[in-house]
Amino acid sequence: MRLLPILPVLAIYCLTACKNEPAKEQPASPAPTSTGNNPEGVARLLFERFNQHDWEGMAALYTDTAEFKDPSFGKSIVKQTRAETVKKYKELNTLFTNFRDSVIGVYPSGDNYVTVEFISKGTAPDGTLFELPICTILTVENGFIRKDFTYYDNEQ
């Protein structure tokens, strides 16, 4: 299936979402789970919460302000607070219904890194189904995700 009609909508959404007023910084919170600094455990919990559409629980897995790299943001690294992450996914969920990620593989690397290969699926605003293969590299420090660098082909 071709994703060309879906990706401009997604890109515009993400770019405009980045230009909103910054949300207030949330206070630091304790480690989100008993995963400790186990990057694989944190990654699996991230995808579990994503698929449950538990945006607050998902955002709690990130540091107070995390770095994101994603083709929808352009080529630069974007810093987002937990509140901004919740807002982004809530808005995205209104555009793309019933979306979820199917994890293909989780590949730990060293003490602080894990790469997750997955397929994102859902329904676009025009009712068409989409399926997008994605890889994300997470940097986990002290039990929280500090960097979320995501790669996918946005030219399909």
Search tags:
156 residues; alpha+beta; Nuclear Transport Factor 2, Chain: A; six-stranded mixed sheet; 6 strands; 29% helix; 37% strand; globular; disordered N terminus
Report what the structure shows:
Helix content is 29%, strand content 37%. The chain is an alpha+beta fold and 156 residues long. It has a single domain (6-18, 36-151), classed as Nuclear Transport Factor 2, Chain: A. Strand 4 (113-123) and strand 5 form a beta hairpin. It is globular, with a radius of gyration of 15 Å.
Structural class: alpha+beta
Shape: globular
Helix fraction? 25-40%
Computed over alpha carbons, the radius of gyration is 15 Å
The fraction of residues assigned to DSSP E strands is 35-45%
Query: Spatial order of the strands in the main sheet?
Result: 2-1-6-5-4-3
Q: Overall mean pLDDT score? A: 82
CATH topology: Nuclear Transport Factor 2, Chain: A
Give the domain tally: 1
* CATH architecture group name: Roll
The major β-sheet equals: 6 strands, mixed
Distance between the termini: 9 Å
Poorly predicted ranges: 1-31
Task: Please identify the top-level CATH class.
Answer: Alpha Beta
Tally of strands: 6
**Continuous helix count:** 4
The secondary-structure element order is HHHEEHEEEE
Quick rundown:
The protein has 156 residues and is of the alpha+beta class.
Q: Layout of helices and strands, plus pairs?
A:
Elements: H1 6-18, H2 39-51, H3 55-59, E1 62-69, E2 78-81, H4 82-95, E3 97-109, E4 113-123, E5 129-141, E6 144-151
Parallel strand pairs: 1-6
Antiparallel strand pairs: 1-2, 3-4, 4-5, 5-6
